[in-house]
Design a protein that fits this description.
The protein has about 375 residues and is of the alpha/beta class. The chain is built from 11 helices and 18 strands. The chain starts with a helix and ends with a helix. It binds flavin-adenine dinucleotide.
């Protein structure tokens, strides 16, 4: 029941991108930057992007010693270096596209906390990872920071020492996504939110993208048409690729009240990146603990659970902010995409359909890089 006007002005596009997270919006921007005459539509099921891109911690990171040494057990050094460079270059593309001021990018460095309870000798990994990274970064990226624990006021009974990475940065996720959306509009991309894609069908002439019409009811489906389609639905991609190496992973996050004289500045993680925290406007944003309830956190459902929330509060009060008075002002969750393979999937499903997903919790870094690869595939 579309009107003549809707048929002629709203339905047909050169490209349709499904999902308005960082990967989807960056793909739409990249397409318009390279081919300004193309008509591009982004379809987003939520009112905001509703996955990970507006829920994350805003680390502009490319790996830490714990994670990298663990990854090296499954990946070759060559593949791991390439992945780390992709993350670094992806951040460069994001910063160039939006500008450091717009995303409040700050290079305050990143720290890995080594706990007394850690059984793995992370310090021993520094040398291996530095020699792997040095040919590209031209410097020893990681070094032990013995005074960090004291400087930041962490509980020395729990934190043994720290590893510093001077190249790591942080950004304001809200500003990043809102300026990316603004830039997308500025380029002339149409973004429709509240548009859940139910099905994508390829014909010999085009691709049909069926969207639920929220207002007219369940049975009313709008059938958008495009020459080509990019699917950027990350953790929610099984709907389109049931056999993909992909499982969702929920990340729960808390954010404290403002804390006077907060000394903590930078990005911090421990337990191979399963826990992460940072300063943001005199508050501490802290997330993670997925590893303590792995099965229940392997879900697409946005929710908070007592076990994870209690664990986060324990570390905040006992280790990160001992003797500081604060309350928890915000709690939320977001959904990431993981797989056995730790590199993202960039898929050419057919001549007309491509997909980019499975960012393994590092899509802020990788989103713009994957968008470039998807655009390469779309513009051939
Ligand atoms: C708590 C948390 C902390 C994180 N911290 C960091 C960090 O510090 N640094 C970092 O690099 N990465 C971090 N990440 C990971 C990063 O946020 C993600 O990798 C990245 O946002 C993925 O972007 P995306 O666009 O692929 O996916 P998403 O942001 O999930 O976007 C996918 C979009 O597709 C939409 N969609 C899904 N299905 C449909 C459909 N059928 N029809 C229409 N639309 C649909 C969703 O609503 C969603 O908006 C974190 C993630 C979480 C959850």
């Amino acid at each position: 029941m579309l009107s003549y006007w809707e048929h002629t002005s709203f339905i047909h596009y050169d490209f349709i991108v499904v999902g308005s997270g960082i990967a989807g919006l960056s793909t739409a921007c990249c397409l318009k930057e390279r081919k300004p005459s193309a008509s591009v539509l982004v379809l987003e099921r939520g009112i905001f992007p509703t996955g990970a891109s507006t829920k994350n911690a805003g680390f502009a990171c490319f790996g830490n010693v714990g994670e990298i040494t663990d990854d090296l057990r499954h990946l070759t050094e060559e593949k791991l270096l390439k992945l780390s460079i992709d993350r670094w270059e992806g951040l460069g593309l994001l910063r160039k596209r939006l500008g450091d001021k717009m995303i409040d990018f700050q290079q305050n460095g990143g720290y890995e906390l080594i706990l007394h309870t850690d059984t793995y000798d992370y310090l021993a990994g520094i040398k291996q990872v530095n020699s792997l990274f040095k040919p590209y970064f031209k410097t020893d990226v990681f070094a032990e920071d013995k005074q960090g624990c004291e400087r930041f006021g962490f509980n020395k009974n729990l934190v043994k020492t720290m590893i510093f990475n001077s190249l790591e940065g942080q950004l304001d996720t809200g500003k990043m996504m809102s300026s990316l959306l603004q830039y997308t509009h500025h380029l002339g991309v149409k973004v429709i939110s509240g548009a859940e894609v139910l099905e994508i069908n390829e014909t010999s002439q085009s691709v049909e993208v069926m969207v639920k019409n929220q207002v007219l009811g369940e049975k009313e489906v709008i059938n958008f048409k495009a020459e080509k389609v990019a699917i950027c639905t990350n953790a929610f991609s099984k709907r389109f690729f049931p056999d993909a190496d992909l499982e969702p992973g929920r990340g729960q996050v808390v954010c404290t009240s403002e804390i006077p004289n907060l000394k903590i500045k930078g990005t911090f993680n421990f337990t191979e990146g399963y826990y992460y925290f940072r300063n943001i406007n005199n508050r501490i944003l802290f997330g993670g603990a997925r590893n303590i309830d792995y099965d229940r956190e392997t879900t697409e459902e946005f929710a908070l659970t007592e076990i994870i929330q209690q664990q986060l509060e324990y570390y905040l009060r006992e280790m990160i902010l001992p003797e500081k008075k604060f309350t928890i002002d915000y709690r939320w969750s977001g959904i990431m995409a993981f797989g056995k393979e730790i590199t993202p999937e960039v898929k050419k499903a057919s001549d007309r359909i491509v997909a980019g997903f499975r960012f393994n919790g590092m899509g802020v870094a990788l989103g713009s890089k994957v968008a470039e690869r998807l655009t390469d595939l779309l513009l051939v």
